[in-house]
């Protein structure tokens, strides 16, 4: 049933000895970049090399939430464009991505959190993104099941309502982009592992895979949770990344009760109700780096406690399934999108932590532009790896939570 | 398979009692003549090993001591220090 190769796209195309670009990782960032290279820049001699099968990693493990209510000036325009792309791509790919813009409600559990949200709302509005500060009563009107009394350990002081956000069917995005790219000639090699990157005179010359060598002058590292390990193993480039397991779970199906995505930074809990009726919810990350994608009883318990604190009607409901994925966290909770720096022709798109899904399509668009033209797009420049050496960390760590080890 | 950590003072305990302290990057660099690049390298950059790595831990909810262990990041299992085990094999 879960064969390594025959997932959706059938047999692999023959591996050519030369491609104009090689993309490591058949996740959403890799597939989106391949799709935009083919459709926007006419680069169709492109290979996507995926060790397992497309969508195996974080592309299919995230909780499918999309939003554009981040905190910093650098991040907001990127996520806004990402949000605007879903309806465009649904049409263009001729594939129902099941974009459901039900809106996101972020809860505040202290005066300080309300104050922080005031700034976040103002920043979003400055960029033309709809976002409102709401009081507890308005929270209750949006989600009647919320407990807005002073009974919970952290009572609700208010919230931030962001109507354009919502959820997108993550697997559909994988399938849509993969089919769209393959139709235009991109080769997607599943069950194929990249084993090395060869550099000659400071330029990318070829990529080794377990199926043979590929000559190419451009390679994109879009390997998600494994991008930092590959970067170090292949090129000796160390990245400011900690790879942590993040856990998620769904409850048994229920009648519709959660009409918006609800999240709480204080409880560290976010939840949405799928069209099947399940409450899909995500938890903390493990506090130590690991590549296990294991769930732990610790977080299933935490999640049950957190959810039933502000949605008491969920008491007694059962979790049906749980899973975990990898989040490659940076110290400033912002990604690294860079290229042609230490090695000419080596591009990287990593450090997305747990924001990689909502940003995948827009990142693919700009990384494709970067790789096709060699010009660093303006919108990506703040996300250079050099910001760490220049001590220009971004302020996306809204809740003073740093997931790097040196926190 | 949850994580357990062996504290040199308290013994093998549940991993959630501990605080991870980062990859073992050797001694803190000398501040004299330290460049921002070198400091950034020490403070932020990681090898992100998918396999065995030597790392710092603190027994936060126990005795409070700091120590290093070797752990396989793909299984969460503590392992013997690679050099030490090679030495033992040689004997």
UniProtKB/TrEMBL annotation, chain A:
GO-annotated molecular function: oxidoreductase activity
Entry annotated with the keyword Oxidoreductase: yes
Domain (FAD dependent oxidoreductase) ranges: 20-369
GO-annotated cellular components: cytoplasm
Keywords noted in UniProt: Oxidoreductase
InterPro entries reported in the protein's UniProt record: FAD-dep_OxRdtase, FAD/NAD-bd_sf
Entry keyword annotation includes Oxidoreductase: yes
Gene3D superfamilies: D-Amino Acid Oxidase, subunit A, domain 2 (3.30.9.10), FAD/NAD(P)-binding domain (3.50.50.60)
PANTHER family referenced in this protein's UniProt entry, alphabetically: FAD-DEPENDENT OXIDOREDUCTASE DOMAIN-CONTAINING PROTEIN 1, SARCOSINE DEHYDROGENASE-RELATED
Protein's name in the database: FAD-dependent oxidoreductase
From TrEMBL, chain B:
InterPro entries documented for this protein: SoxD, SoxD_sf
GO biological process assignments: tetrahydrofolate metabolic process
Single GO molecular function: sarcosine oxidase activity
Descriptive protein name: Sarcosine oxidase subunit delta
Organism of this sequence: Desulfonema ishimotonii
